[in-house]
Design goal:
The chain is mainly alpha-helical and 143 residues long. It is built from 6 helices and no strands. It has helices at 2-27, 31-38, 43-79, 91-98, 101-106, 109-136. Helix 1 (2-27) runs antiparallel to helix 3 and helix 3 runs antiparallel to helix 6. The radius of gyration is 21 Å and the shape is elongated.
Length: 143
């Protein structure tokens, strides 16, 4: 399981790095950053007090949406036999074990419930990400 999580992190970090870099490049040109620089604030003070608090919001939203992708990736890799070993519980392994026709006819719930759990978990992460986006976006707030 640790190797799978490590592999998913190695693959996924590039998108987060691009996102935070783009946000920092955008926020550093804002007027309040220029004003802080004109008032003599140091680089670290500008970075931690002005740039990061305004650049981190999209990263938080992307991370919550990325969790849905991680759940789907883990389930897919486990279904294909490349993820978690079979004694460990995994929705992908449960679906793979239940896809046999005799199991499917005798106990269809063995396939339906893990699939439903994956779908609901991904949907919940997407709703959390969408809610965070709406909450953290100042243009969406009603005043």
């Amino acid at each position: 399981l640790n190797k799978l999580i490590f592999a998913l992190c190695i693959i996924g970090w590039v998108g987060y790095a691009r996102l935070i870099r783009a946000q920092v490049l955008k926020v550093r040109e804002y007027d309040f950053v220029q004003a802080a620089r004109a008032l003599g604030a140091g680089d670290l003070r500008i970075l931690f007090a002005h740039i990061l608090p305004n650049a981190i919001q999209p990263l938080i939203v992307q991370a919550s949406l990325g969790m849905a992708g991680a759940v789907l990736s883990e389930a897919s890799l486990s279904f294909l036999g490349l993820g978690v070993p079979p004694p460990a519980p995994s929705w992908g392994v449960m679906i793979e074990e239940a896809r046999d026709l005799s199991t499917l006819q005798a106990a269809p719930h063995a396939l339906i419930f893990p699939g439903l759990a994956i779908a609901l978990t991904v949907l919940a992460f997407n709703f959390v990400g969408d809610g965070l986006r709406e909450y953290l976006d100042p243009r969406q707030r009603r005043r």
